[in-house]
Specification:
The chain has 184 residues and is mainly alpha-helical. It has 6 helices and 2 strands. A two-stranded antiparallel ribbon has the order 1-2. The protein is rod-shaped.
Length: 184
């Protein structure tokens, strides 16, 4: 004997459609074929036109918010570490000595190129972080990872070319970039 579509199937179909389930998910849940579910959905005025399930959209938005928070935390942490390098009582720098031999030297103040590189990197980090925070507050479509990555790429376009390594390990000249001495 053939199975008949019931009012319970209608309720299930409406509930799953409201949750954002795809046609295939409804078919798996109810045990009906795609043609049957599609025909009944049309009769009830429901659509399946390339929808992304609402739970998936919410999960993507949460994931992007978490990624954004992690990126911001890392940016602020890097900026604070660079400020610490500038405030260090002693500064270690790689200098080229006699016959082109490089060696580490402790200095009481950072050399001008290291000051320039570190302040430029700090400026770029803080400007980018502030722009990300501002965009997060004003961006209604925060569920799209492509939009976030595109924004990140655009936020870093104006970076100063003298800071080849935001972490500060190497500056444009290939020197150590001024690293505070490590405790013994």
């Amino acid at each position: 004997m053939a199975r008949r579509w019931t009012a319970r199937d209608d309720r299930t179909l409406r509930a799953l459609n409201k949750k954002g389930a795809t046609l295939g998910a409804v078919c798996r849940e109810t045990g009906w074929s795609a043609a049957t579910v599609s025909r009944r959905a049309r009769a009830l005025g429901l659509t399946w036109a390339n929808r992304v399930p609402t739970e998936m959209v919410a999960a993507q938005a949460e994931n992007i918010a978490a990624v954004r928070a992690d990126v911001l935390a890392a940016m602020w942490e890097q900026a604070q570490a660079m400020l610490g390098r500038l405030a260090a009582p002693e500064f270690v720098d790689l200098v080229r000595g006699e016959y082109g031999v490089e060696h580490l030297t402790q200095l009481s103040t950072p050399p001008s190129r290291s000051l320039r590189d570190l302040t430029s990197a700090i400026s770029n980090l803080t400007r980018s972080a502030a722009a990300i925070e501002s965009a997060a507050k004003s961006n209604a479509d925060s569920s799209d990872i492509r939009a976030f990555l595109t924004f990140m790429a655009g936020a870093n376009v104006g970076q100063d070319s003298t800071t080849s390594d935001i972490g500060g390990e190497n500056d444009a000249s290939g020197s150590a970039g001024g690293v505070p001495p490590q405790p013994a």
